[in-house]
Specification:
4-stranded antiparallel sheet, globular, 277 residues, single chain, alpha+beta, 38% helix
């Protein structure tokens, strides 16, 4: 079926697949839904304003001795409809994206496939980059493993306007990103603590954690020597003897389940909180 009814049937089919995946994987009650980014009405207004400004400037210049310069605003004027086409095309493609958050996991429709993720078993790698300047924005990228072990990448971008559609990106990443990280931490932290209590080691990429300290392939630091833990420019740094240093493999983007690691580290470095042997 084509046309509006066809699009509706397509959405209904995906909703059935999403609901089925949530039930099969015991994700619990749905808590939030985040679609792909969509253009706002005000972006069309900006396009109209661009036409007026560039068209008017071209007309004024054409009536002066500097008529040759009119080609510049004319070229910019021609770019406006192209930009509108790109934005509408992106908006249309992003209608196929959908992120549903549940009590015990999430479903994500990416590239026409429904992925189911359980918080208690997934691995999450986070790469958040803040771009400064007049047009500053923050880009978000979360790589998770679904219940089949397949990697699924969730992307988003937050800027001052939030009005322009971004291909392959979900809306409101500043909301769903932290929500996913917090849910994964709640689900996995108790088991992580139990593993450390049993005397075993937990690996977080190139970093490892035991009840005695944290380390990597080349070095280790006992918890009682760590005065503070912070993230600087995307790297985990430890304050030891009044000096900051970054262990090997301490880039946040390379640490799976970074917030679980950070919760364990903050807990274990405080006196009296270390698991008993």
């Amino acid at each position: 079926m084509t046309g509006q009814d066809g699009r509706a049937d397509g959405r209904d089919e995906f909703l059935t697949l999403i609901d089925g995946a949530a039930v099969r994987n015991r994700l619990g009650e749905r808590q939030a839904v985040h679609p792909g980014t969509q253009s706002q009405a005000s972006s069309a207004g900006c396009a109209v304003a661009g036409v007026v400004v560039f068209g008017g400037l071209a007309l004024v210049l054409s009536l002066t001795e500097a008529a040759v310069l009119a080609v510049i605003p004319l070229m910019l004027l021609l770019m406006v409809p192209f930009g509108i086409w790109i934005e509408r095309s992106t908006t249309k493609k992003n209608r196929g994206l959908r992120l549903d958050l549940y009590e015990h996991g999430l479903t994500a429709v990416v590239k026409g496939r429904v992925h189911a993720v359980r918080y208690e078993s997934t691995s999450v790698r986070q790469n958040t980059v803040r771009h400064t300047g007049v047009g500053g924005y923050t880009s978000y990228e979360y790589t998770l493993t679904d219940v089949d072990g397949t990697k699924v990448v969730l992307r988003g971008r937050a800027d001052r306007t939030g009005e322009v559609a971004q291909k392959g990106r979900f809306a409101n990443p500043q909301e769903w990103g932290p929500a996913v990280q917090q849910a994964v931490t709640r689900a996995q932290l108790p088991r992580a603590v139990a593993i450390l209590n049993s005397g075993e080691r937990l690996d977080f990429g190139r970093l490892w954690v035991t009840r005695d300290g944290v380390g990597s392939a080349r070095e280790s630091t006992p918890w009682h020597e760590i005065q503070e833990i912070k993230v600087f420019s995307g790297f985990v740094k430890l304050k030891v003897a009044g000096r900051w240093r970054a262990p090997a493999g301490a880039a946040v983007s390379t640490i799976p389940n970074f917030f679980v690691f950070l919760a364990l580290a903050e807990h274990l470095r405080r006196p009296g909180n270390r698991p008993a042997g």
